[in-house]
Design goal:
The chain is α/β, with parallel strands linked by helices. Helix content is 34%, strand content 12%. The radius of gyration is 21 Å and the shape is globular. Strand 2, helix 4 and strand 3 form a beta-alpha-beta unit. The chain has a single domain, classed as Amidase signature (AS) enzymes (Alpha-Beta Complex), CATH 3.90.1300.
Length: 539
Amino acid sequence: MPTKVASTAVLDRRGFLATGLAVGAVAAAANVPILAAEPPSATFSVEEATLDELRAGLEAGRWTSKDLVAKYLARIRAVDENGPGLHAVIEVNPDAFALAEGLDEERRKTGSRGPLHGIPILIKDNLDTADRMKTTAGSLALLDAPAPARDAFVVQKLREAGAVILGKTNLSEWANMRSTRSTSGWSGRGRQTCNPYALDRSPSGSSSGSAVAVSANLCAVAIGTETDGSIVSPASVNGIVGLKPTLGLVSRSGIIPISQTQDTAGPMTRTVRDAALLLTAIAGPDPLDRATEEATRQRSLDYAHGLDGKGLQGARLGVLSNFLGVHAHVDRVIHPALEALRTAGATLVQVELKSGAFEEAEFEVLIYDFKADLNAYLADRGGAVKDLASLIAFNEKHRDKEMPFFDQETLVKTQTKGPRTEDNYLKAMETCRQARRDIEALCDKHKLDALVAPTGSTAWMTDPINGDASGFSCSSFAAVAGTPHITVPAGFAFGLPVGLSFFGRPWSEIRLLQLAYAFEQRSKARRAPKYLKTASLKA
């Protein structure tokens, strides 16, 4: 959901989209204690393990799903709860071992369901689970709310694929929609998530916990959500792959909403192939989300198909020149990455997209949608906080715990909006529709397979007093257009990860994955974090 990074260097007037500053490395541990990890029955490491590698070990009997759960829980305790104290995991599933044992037994009796059978996965704390875990969007206001009546559709799909829902990840509270001066990765419930590459730097938001958990090997893969940049920005600054799908490819039912116009869930992984495997599991139509109707016709049954490393041969890529020359250290990483694309057989064409026409319109659409969609969610959920007005009242009553650093002026402004039939909303929506037309027209004009750009700035310093720092991001085009966007690690600037983005036409996920995979295989830029207290000052 909205990360806090703007599409250009000018950010102050729309800080809700400027990449997030997390509240320093002074965060308290998550509210829910970590389960005591049982010792695994086999000696092995899960660090940097891919889904294929974990699956091969399960099928060969080298380890069990219960062993994997034990390994990841032990790592969460050592790295997230203690050790450097990343605070990426807000809660672990008290039934994780029982679920793993059941899946191990099923494998013995009837075989594997597929690539995710028995694999521990973390999900963002805005996806409903009808189990003993909480679903709170990081807010203390929902801690005592009734458990959701049913799993989010994405969670249902993961369970059907045989995944073990290991727990939930921290996030920017209410997905960065509480304040224009918020700090990414901070929530009243989970406190502050820290960037694993430099603990005093932002993990970005709002899917900060999912990104950090994947990067720090606290899980195999994770689910994040995005409205504008909240998958791709944290993925970029935490050195992982993040995929925001076409609007409607993945259902939003059972996900605490911001906007029916832009919300989506998506994979956060360490490799492009893992993102493809995870997308295959969660994509598809849902009768409770009308936006997914077209997914029946458009989706692939196997997004990992064709990932052979040759995807860049003969490709035509539009390089968004308006994102070059913005950040010198990012440029030093991106220019060699662009040369790698060219060397791998791609033709690069200099192009430009300008988001200025829809920046203010986007915010107008989001706050209208947020009021309507959140009120509907809270009314269905039940409990004391039954609408946006009662949420605002709760925050005021518990200001010492919920608002020690930043306020709730975005919630207050959202509350003033009327129905989505008002002229302001309809005009803003029409302005935003131009974003998709612009992307498609640019791709048509230059016969492009995709657009490429640096995903955004490197991680900035965490500052709970002043909030998120300014930076830049290319996320808004695909976010407003509802088109797919994938970011892949491209390299490092002073020890901080930099991502390269590929985005393009609606329903072009397979092509984007092929391009991103070919780049990944050539660059091999992913490096596990070393948990430094501060970023290296050596280039």
